[in-house]
Amino acid sequence: MPQDHAQTATQAGQDTAREAGHHQLPQTVEPRNPGMPLDMAWVEAATANAPAITRRCATLPGRRTVKKDHQAAWLARAISCIDLTTLAGDDTPGRVRRLCAKARQPVRADLAAALDLPDLTVGAVCVYHDMVRTAVKALQGTGIPVAAVSTGFPAGLSPFHLRVAEIGESVSAGAAEIDIVISRRHVLTGDWQALYDEMRAFRQACGDAHVKAILATGELGTLQNVAKASLVCMMAGADFIKTSTGKESVNATLPVSLVMIRAIREYHERTGIRIGYKPAGGISKAKDALVYLSLIKEELGDRWLRPDLFRFGASSLLGDIERQLEHHVTGAYSASWRHAAG
Fold this sequence. Notes:
Helix content: 40-55%
Distance between the termini: 30 Å
Strand content: 5-15%
Number of helices: 14
Shape: globular
């Protein structure tokens, strides 16, 4: 992160302290995305200059990053934007309750006190449908929303009516956010009307719950497809667009993120509606979180550095951030096992 960004880092940390523990669902901060009619001229005009995008992204990790108090402030902000996630076949109610306890107190009490962030929490907890009620109960009174993956996650190939019904079941169970997966075949065959109609139906089924559209970018073939799919999902009413399920062979990358972020910027410029962004899969190090925050700040601005418009989909990222914060406070690194997520 460039040095001039460090001037805002202290304020970012203070804002995090005020906001953490007092989470509001995004609809209380920004108007919902009502969507719009499918604009095929806009979709067909979408392009992605792969060489230029690659060059732009290559400059990000090598830049001088923020240090000391500024870095701690940015890492605290990253924590407040994490969707703390467990999507394992052997998930149990006990594991989910432990994850929710970590969500409520993401860093040890002594570290939180030293950082003057006693109310810091993560942005949300993300689970499979069967664990929604357990998570909702464990997070009662915290303001931390529960997100459920849905619509035949991760492949999205179950019958359409069952995918829609699955959304309704998770909303009824208390999920405030629904992470849906699109049908990749619609993108690969260029059937943008079908993608729009599918996303529109999912948005309607979510009701008051916010919907994150998972594009599974590693399976879309080209960056141009990513750009077009991003636009179509936003036109159909997605509140967030998300890179990946975390189950693909290629998940969140900086080039894909840049394409999606610029689609968000263009959509905001044309409609006035802010759409959220969620990179997911493979982001496990604190230094990577800083790079993504830097990209968001440079491309979209400070307003997107809040949990109602930016999330990390992660399970192990929090442990590394907590480890870095302990080093900031004590001057020594601890073993990674001392910062288990659940």
